[in-house]
Amino acid sequence: MKLKLLILPFLLLSFVAKAQIPAGYYNSANGLSGAPLKTALYNIIKGHTTFGYNALWTAFQTTDDKPDGNVWDMYSNCTFTFGSDQCGSYSIECDCYNREHSFPQSWFNSSSPMVSDLFHIYPTDGKVNGMRGNYPFGEVGTATYTSQNGSKLGNSASTGYSNIVFEPIDEYKGDFARSYFYMATRYENVIVSWQNNTGADEVLNGTTYPCYDQWFIDLLLAWNAADPVSQKEIDRNNTIYTSFQHNRNPYIDHPEYVNWVWGGIALAPEPESYPEMFSAHNIHLQWVDATGTILPEGYLVRMGTNGFQSINNPQDGIVYPDSQSDLNVPYGVQNVWFTNLIPNTIYYFKLFGFTGSGLNIDYKTDGNVPQMQQTTGY
User: Fold this and answer.
1) More confident position, 166 or 11
2) Whole-model pTM?
3) CATH classification (class only), 275-375
4) Where in the chain is the domain with CATH 2.60.40.10?
């Protein structure tokens, strides 16, 4: 017979499998939703370390490198080597790669620090980037141009917008959506002033919140849901934080923030207070039932506080009713709780099998009686 003990009233397992988020980084955002959450995130990620526009070429080598060491281009299937394949001039796809502002430069007048913020800038094929121009992202109805990897330019099929849009492939739509949620958050303090810049009013609505036109919010929410955070994004987020800007994209670390800010999902009211008398003053004993030709009909579990020697063997023919120190457990149940114990106290237990009942009850007391000791919590 095997006997084991669990002292905790519950078991909490924590798995950390996503981004390497610094402890407490998002504490000030806890319990918030909507505009207050967005503002809290702004205050967390603002004031990042900036660097020159030309430094992007070097940064790409660690933020956007494929496992094979080549450039990770989300607009084409071209194979580019860092450094030697930088644009330069281009005339066809796969000539060279350049620095794509997924949130177009013209929308913020190429101002700093937006112009070199890695969270919306990616290395992409020069030709495809040029075809995209400063058109907004969207779902294409009829394509007038399609890149080798399937990215498209054409008229919008989205309800509420009918002008020309650029549509990346499905694999990266979530990446770009989370870049746009980042931009609306990181630049909350200035984004209102971009409304009249070239092309910006195609998606911006001139507010701090929600920042974007509703058709575009609907599009970004759909892309975010359809293309969840990938390992590529997680690795990129960590590299930008540790090696370059020292801030993070909260919508990669916490994808749920997207719906809490823009999806109209409000958090339920937080409980007003914590429970009282939180302790580990209960002890849970478990065992595997005895086997053999004569099986026990039940078990008497006896408890003491002065060592195993203080626990007397039960006497045959006597039934011991349940009490603070004795509990009877039917065969097959295989566990029992002792509750309302004294904190920080060592308890001792012995487990006796029995057959029969009343005056003919017969306890097994010879051999090695299973025993266990455990200390309760404070």
Assistant:
1) 166
2) 0.71
3) mainly beta
4) 275-375
